[in-house]
Fold this sequence. Notes:
This protein is of the alpha+beta class. It has five helices and seven strands. Helix 1 crosses helix 3.
Amino acid sequence: MQFRTATVDDAPILAALSIEVWIGTYLPRGVNAFFARFALEEFTAARLARAIEDPSQHFIVSENADGLDGFIRISHGSDAPMDGGTDTGIATLYVQPRHQGRGLGRALLDQALAHAREAGAPSVWLTVNSDNRGAIAFYLAQGFKDVGTTHFHIGDQAYLNQVLQRPL
Length: 168
């Protein structure tokens, strides 16, 4: 595993990786037009390039001999969805399904936590879909605590998410 900070040139790769992971995680039984539109509008190279260039965002990618296989996005200055939360959150942690289970997610998370510590954050928070039991178990095993709930919105639809927090 090799890690580095993402560049704008990585944006199309991160867009493709995001679509792959998001659809595979949240739409295991099939893709309908509503979710297809969301994925294709949300995970674009242009949007990710803007995020990579944003100084309040920090992307760390994992790279193997053939290309990128995962990334994590740390957001600084974002409002925590719970009282007493810091402004540093893990916005995204995506690992290609065929690379999961080998410690890549944990290694990316470790890189992000080190970055947040260096930035002076006392803790980090994240949200995860309440039905994503595997991800919740992963974060709890990494020292996160369940501190509440919030909702993720797609159009007029709302999806229950757990809010997890970890001191640094």
